[in-house]
Amino acid sequence: MNILKRLLICFFVFSGITAMSQDYVTSDNFKLKLIKAKKASGSTWEYTIKTSKQTKKAQVRLRLKSSTGKKESFDPNKFYLVSNEAKVRVRPLDVRYNYAAGWIFIPFDRLAYNPIDAQKVKDLVSYDPDIEDTFQNYGLDGFENISPEINFGTKKKPKVIPSYLEPEDLKSCKLDLYFALPKELKNFEIYHGDEKIANVTLK
Fold first, then answer.
1. Which one of 87, 127, 169, 198 is at 20 to 30 Å from 115 when CA atoms are compared?
2. CB of 96 within 8 A of CB of 176?
3. Three-state DSSP class for 155?
4. Distance between CA atoms of residues 52 and 43, nearest Å
5. Considering Cα of 28, then 107, then 80, then 102, what sign does the dihedral take?
6. DSSP codes of every residue in 29-54
7. In this structure, what are the phi and psi dihedrals at residue 10, rounded to the nearest 5 degrees?
8. pLDDT digit string (tens) for 118-165?
9. Whole-model pTM?
10. Beta-bridge partners for 14
11. Cα 59 vs. chain centroid, distance in angstroms?
């Protein structure tokens, strides 16, 4: 997907700000730090993310730095939210990083689990069997795994295809993570792999 197409996105609108501060946490070859968490609403021009009326959307912004000071491959599939109250482990609806030093946030490219699905929406999703979906590696006993359903088609002609994210070479940037949560849920934890990045409270 070329850079111009990836910039054609409709931005999320934020409300109910909850800003928090903490130290960096190391995960793989990166250091991650929570900047803030907010309620969010919105969609993209590229695809529709289906969420229940009983859920709310939340945005979590992190700062990322490479531990080596150089670009390293960063795997966004290792991100997940944990609610001990609801006993769920939730994959992000979307993960984006800011372009250069600017305010434009770009979504990571999406990958399909098989070439047939990738061919159905070849302009939006690709296929690479060498890239693992590492979200599957961090399941928790007694917790339900929740992944978003993404419609790459239209309401009349839906193309709901399971997908995951392609790692990107990054050095230093901000990351935006978007989640769909039960409306009553206010407290949760953000993880990258085995590392807990932050405790989060939404207003």
1. 169
2. yes
3. coil
4. 14
5. positive
6. TEEEEEEEEEEEE---SS-EEE--TT
7. -100, 125
8. 999 988 999 999 999 999 999 999 999 999 878 888 888 888 899 999
9. 0.84
10. 40
11. 9
